[in-house]
Amino acid sequence: MTISGSDALIVSDTEAWSTCIEFPAGTGFDSATLLAVQKWIRKSVSTGVDKNSWQLQLHQTIPWTPGSKAGGTLRCDRRGCTALAREQEKGWNFRGMID
User: Fold this and answer.
1) Residue 33 CB-density burial (10 A; 0-12 exposed, 13-18 middle, 19+ buried)
2) What share of the chain is helix, strand, coil (3-state, %, to 5)?
3) pLDDT in tens, 52-81
4) How many CB atoms lie within 10 A of CB 78?
5) SS3 of 46, please?
6) CA pair distance 83, 94, nearest whole angstrom
7) Shortest CA distance to 35 belongs to which of 79, 55, 5, 69?
8) DSSP string, 28-39
């Protein structure tokens, strides 16, 4: 995975967001481009976790370009990841038939 154009926003002492553009391995810089968004949290000292330790709470990718070859979107949190795959929608055409 190659990334580019990363930015970060620190909202408070315990919450921050970051974004970047992702290029999955083997796809090149002109295809399969994804926008990645991450939410970071920092636990309080009372939880026993190092106060300076940021933990990833959420990671989500979304196809960034109209012609993206990315197969869908990905959303991850502490429970794991869910992929929402792109699929051509079948529906009725003007002749009343299913494509």
Assistant:
1) buried
2) 5, 50, 45
3) 788 889 999 888 777 666 667 888 887 888
4) 8
5) helix
6) 32
7) 5
8) -TTSS-EEEEEE
Tokens of 16: 């921050």
Quote the tokens at residue 65: 């370009």
Tokens of 71: 């197969």
Check: pTM over 0.90? Answer yes or no.
Answer: no
Q: Which two tokens stand for residue 20?
A: 């970047």
The answer to whether 35 and 17 have CB atoms below 8 angstroms apart is no
Which residue, among 21, 25, 28, 15, has the nearest Cα to 62 in the 3D structure?
21
How large a percentage of the chain has pLDDT more than 90? 18
Q: Are 79 and 92 in contact (CB under 8 A)?
A: no
User: Can you tell me the distance from the alpha carbon of 33 to that of 81, in angstroms, rounded to the nearest whole number?
Assistant: 19
- Report whether 84 contacts 73 (CB < 8 A): yes
DSSP 14: S
Tokens of 43: 């636990």
